[in-house]
Amino acid sequence: MSDCIFCKIIAGELPSKKVYEDEQIVAFHDIQPASPIHVLIIPKKHIASLADAGEEDWNMIGQIQRVAAQIARELEVEESGYRVITNIGANAGQIVHHLHYHLMAGARLSPLGV
Ligand code: 5GP
Ligand code: ZN
Questions:
Q1: The CATH number, out of the four listed (1.20.1250.20, 3.30.70.660, 3.30.428.10, 3.30.750.24), of the domain defined by the range 5-105
Q2: 22 alpha-carbon distance from chain centroid
Q3: Where is this motif: Histidine triad motif (predicted)?
Q4: pLDDT confidence of residue 63
């Protein structure tokens, strides 16, 4: 997707502070962190949101969970706790329409809700 910010980050056309990369997945620090640690974990394949994932994507999406747990371990927030979430669509506040998981940590996070 030529007009997708995250596809441009994957292609190296926009800079990012990467913390993880493999064949299918990349993770980098959020440009506007909403918590002391705020990392985005995304597939290299352009998928607009979880709602657009196909049968062939579930394995990779499972790997994203594994990568989230690994990064949390590396950043030493496993004990203090962390949150992994993905926003889907307008009511969830999804701004970037390329599937991404937020890994948030480093402080007591506010409860989920309205
Ligand atoms: P959403 O609301 O779509 O779930 O979250 C999108 C996230 O992407 C936001 O937390 C926002 O700060 C982050 N973001 C938007 N543009 C960029 C960018 O160019 N680089 C990085 N690293 N993060 C971005
Ligand atoms: Zn994209």
A1: 3.30.428.10
A2: 14
A3: 98-102
A4: 98
